[in-house]
From TrEMBL:
Domain CAAX prenyl protease 2/Lysostaphin resistance protein A-like: residue ranges: 105-194
Record key words, sorted: Membrane, Transmembrane, Transmembrane helix
Keyword Ligase attached: no
Transmembrane stretches, start-end: 7-25, 31-49, 61-86, 106-123, 135-154, 160-178, 185-202
One Pfam family recorded for the sequence: Rce1-like
Protein name as catalogued: CAAX prenyl protease 2/Lysostaphin resistance protein A-like domain-containing protein
Length: 203
């Protein structure tokens, strides 16, 4: 634990992530601008700090990336069917997230694909989880990094977003431990987001 507390790169990056996301969610009108900036920071910090893991051949990471993205969407689809029986008005929260944060302009789709998705995977799995795995076993690192990933969405004031990020973090974190391929995670995340946000939104 003492060694972890001395890992200033990890500590500072998480603090900065919270500062950036607090600012990002402070005004819905600037969300797409600031979240783009936040993920550019994530990409830069991750690339500077850690080697990008790519231990799968192209055909392998494409196959597992696409299949895992489809699987995660299926899990979320089933979860969406259960929302009406759950407390805390979670169904209304999902509707408001789609209403307030869905892409509206062509550049939104571009940064979603080229900045948001790579930024989240490079930073939260390729840097944070990888760094935590130095100090903890894989299971603990997956849970801790997923909790940290979910925590930045507390500023959205949407419990469902926090829960969704945590579940997605557990899924992608487990894939990362299994295959050690950031490109595979990016493909998985891309397939999931395109289905969830563009092709088959849940609201």
């Amino acid at each position: 634990m003492m060694a972890l507390m001395k890992d200033w790169r990890l500590i500072v990056s998480i603090v900065l992530a919270h500062v950036l996301l607090y600012m990002t969610f402070s005004d819905r009108d600037i969300f797409w601008y600031l979240y783009t900036a936040a993920n550019l920071f994530f990409i830069s910090f991750a690339i500077i700090s850690e080697k990008i893991d790519d231990k799968q051949k192209t055909r392998s990471y494409l196959k597992y990336g696409v299949l895992s993205g489809l699987l995660l969407y299926a899990v979320f689809f089933i979860g969406h069917l259960l929302l009406p029986i759950l407390p805390f008005s979670l169904e209304k929260q999902v509707a408001s997230i789609y209403r307030w944060y869905s892409p509206q302009f062509s550049w939104h789709y571009v940064v979603l694909i080229l900045v948001f998705i790579p930024g989240e995977e490079l930073f939260w799995r390729g840097f944070v989880q990888k760094r935590l795995s130095i100090y903890f076993n894989d299971l603990t690192a997956i849970i801790a990094s997923s909790a940290l990933y979910a925590s930045i969405f507390l500023y959205s004031d949407k419990l469902i977003w926090v829960l969704a990020a945590f579940m997605a973090g557990l899924f992608w974190g487990s894939l990362y431990v299994w295959k050690r391929s950031i490109p595979m995670l990016i493909i998985s995340h891309l397939v999931f987001d395109v289905l969830l946000i563009v092709l088959l939104p849940l609201f």
